[in-house]
Amino acid sequence: MKNDCKISTFGRYLYLNMYAILILIMGIGILLLPLNKFSAYLIYGQIAIMLFSFKVAFGIFGKWKAKKRRYVKLTEENSKTFNPESFKEYMEAPCGRLLVKIVLKDLGMSDKYSSLKNYRISWKKNIKNVCISQKTTIYKVNQ
Question: How far apart are CA 139 and CA 2, in angstroms?
């Protein structure tokens, strides 16, 4: 991984995990709200929301090695010629868009980001896709 050293800086770590940091701060902020003055049972809701936000945040933090692999993959695929299709799956999520911005900046192609915005899925459409039930079919392989 020759390109690994470019992404393994503390500033890049903070930038690529910005959403995890915000979710972590949100969880702490929710816990600090004095809702127990209204009802003692509200503290249970606060703790549940805080635990969920911590789970999500630490899940994002735990994907650092995968982000480094994706960075290397994208830089190698686009170092010679710009291939917009290689960025398609990364433009669907906010964390992926941060990675795309860093890759394009390192390749000196920051101006190409505007052409990738048509791959971006809106928040409403993304929620709609997640909420649609999907049929899973399992095929049995005969041996």
Answer: 41
Q: What is the pLDDT of residues 102-113, one digit of tens each?
A: 999 999 999 998
Q: What is the pLDDT of residue 57?
A: 95
Q: Which DSSP category does 109 fall into?
A: -
Mean of pLDDT values over 80-107: 89
What are the structure tokens assigned to 5, written together? 């050293």
Q: What is the DSSP string of 28-92?
A: HHHHHS-GGGT-TTHHHHHHHHHHHHHHHHHHHHTTHHHHHHHHHHHHHHHSSS--GGGGGGGGG
2 touches 75 (CB < 8 A) = no
